[in-house]
Amino acid sequence: AQSVAQPEDQVNVAEGNPLTVKCTYSVSGNPYLFWYVQYPNRGLQFLLKYITGDNLVKGSYGFEAEFNKSQTSFHLKKPSALVSDSALYFCAVRDSAGKSTFGDGTTLTVKP
Amino acid sequence: NAGVTQTPKFRVLKTGQSMTLLCAQDMNHEYMYWYRQDPGMGLRLIHYSVGEGTTAKGEVPDGYNVSRLKKQNFLLGLESAAPSQTSVYFCASNGQGSGEQYFGPGTRLTVT
Fold it and tell me: How high is the pLDDT of residue B42?
């Protein structure tokens, strides 16, 4: 069975500092990997995805993620955090049959 | 282009009552999903569909049924609601197996 782990419930960073939100996964076959962001009382919004190709993926709002096959990781990064980046972040994996699994989410707080 | 819409937005049920949640998408997407979101547990997949007339069980299907009679609609039914089904329900869709999901705004359901 596929699974996603987000080992940190909460990540706190100062504005202007780099941020990393961690994600590891387990899936049979080649993974489709995604990051989503959720603001309070809203649905999830897509940030970026890895399907194939370059291991460094760039997405919306200056976010990027690095796919590491050997470590089965897909960590979300941003070089300089903004207060407005504060939200709940979800990593997700999908298998070739279309079944999606999400992590439990990581709350990112960026302090001024 | 409305994207993914969900009705109703809020609902309160008594234990044992039934209801149907409607999800509609106008993007001609093949894949549709129903998730529930509970505090600290991320999103859990209830059922999903890879095309009109098809459905499949997700991680937590018990107590729910679904139908995908039309490509644009995905219905989630609760035949006999239980307090454990109190949650926020999200519908999502994507166009291809590798595509990012588009989420609806959610339905907040309380079962008393």
Answer: 86
